[in-house]
Amino acid sequence: MEFRTFGRTGMRLSVLGFGCGAVGGLMVRGEAADQERAVARALAVGVNYFDTAVLYGDGESEKNLGRILQKLKPADAVVGTKVRLQPGDLGRIEGAVTASLEGSLSRLRLDRVDILHLHNSVTREGGGPALSVRQVLEQVVPAFQRLRDQGKIRFLGLTALGDTAALHEVISAGAFDSAQVVYNMLNPSAADALPQSYPAQDYGRLFDATKAEGVGVVGIRVLAGGALSGSAERHPIAGPAPEPIGSAMSYAGDVDRARRLTPLIEGGFAASLTEAATRFAISHPAMGTILVGMATPQQFEDALAAVQNGPLPQAALDRLSALRQAFVGEAR
Questions:
Q1: Quick check: is 332 in a domain?
Q2: Which of 60, 34, 17 is nearest to 235 (CA)?
Q3: DSSP string, 218-274
Q4: Given this model, what pLDDT does residue 238 score?
Q5: DSSP code of 187?
């Protein structure tokens, strides 16, 4: 297993993390034996980052991960969870953050988590489920810092969703140690400038900001919610097709574009689209660890095999860039 230094934290994280989310569903709706087998296997091959959230199954993911880690007692597991503030929490952000973390710690059976990520999207002015830049920097960050001072979290993180300019401003403020960043074969804009009229949110080379501030990057939506399998079929325990999550506004649109990347497979660069997508995500040096959603232990094995094959070669990346040119001008 390859390990990479995670920003300025000093942590060394496995390049493949273990995603406990609801889209794949294993750690939310899977059988207990399958959950334990997958986590034990991950630990055995060197995976040391486990990512969960209150939102995943209304705490079920945290409960299941906590049960398994307590039983297996790994010496070096790094655990990240998240807090999602509701509109009714905005008058009491510090209290809501604290209460959410206390609930998470109880379900995880831990005294502290390594990273607490803000799970709300961030926009300039906020509103609805989104938080404004000012709310994040003036209220959320101090609440997180107090929890860090109390020894209940080690590092501050955010899920980098929302308005591009707002995300750049928040990351460039230097308060966060970790950012969960969208990066996949359909939308590489965290790393590279998109062609004009490309049908995806342009994250404006967000990796430049994370690098400048020493922020560790967790790669998310690596498989575009499953669309980069090239199949619309979903496992029985997987969550509903998420949209928008890749480049298109619909899951079907993402699947269609994913299928148009099959020349990568025909060219011998990877055995499947999921392998290519996984290897693409680890190809960028800004990436600290990636999360791949899974519904079964076998899907973990598939992700592991892909990572063990290493980053995509430059020839594959060049071919992928050329294939994406066909998307320019299409409706998102």
A1: no
A2: 34
A3: EEE-TTGGGGGGT-----TTSPPPPSSSSSSSSHHHHHHHHHTTTHHHHTTS-SSHH
A4: 76
A5: B
Q: What CA–CA distance (Å, rounded) separates 41 from 306?
A: 16
Does residue 72 sit within a domain?
yes
Handedness of CA 133, 135, 139, 144 (dihedral sign): negative
In the chain, the number of structural domains is: 1
Q: What is the mean pLDDT of the chain?
A: 96
CATH of the domain at 309: 3.20.20.100
Residue 98 tokens, joined = 């604290």
Domain region containing 15? 3-326
What tens digit of pLDDT does each residue of 115-127 get? 999 999 999 999 9
C-alpha to C-alpha distance for 149 and 156, rounded to whole angstroms: 11
In a domain, 90, yes or no: yes
Q: What percent of the chain has pLDDT over 70?
A: 100
| pLDDT tens column, 29-74 | 999 999 999 999 999 999 999 999 999 999 999 999 999 999 999 9
242: tokens are 């998420």
Average pLDDT over residues 172-178: 97
Beta strand pairing status for 153-159 and 18-19? unpaired
Q: Report yes or no on 331 lying in a domain.
A: no
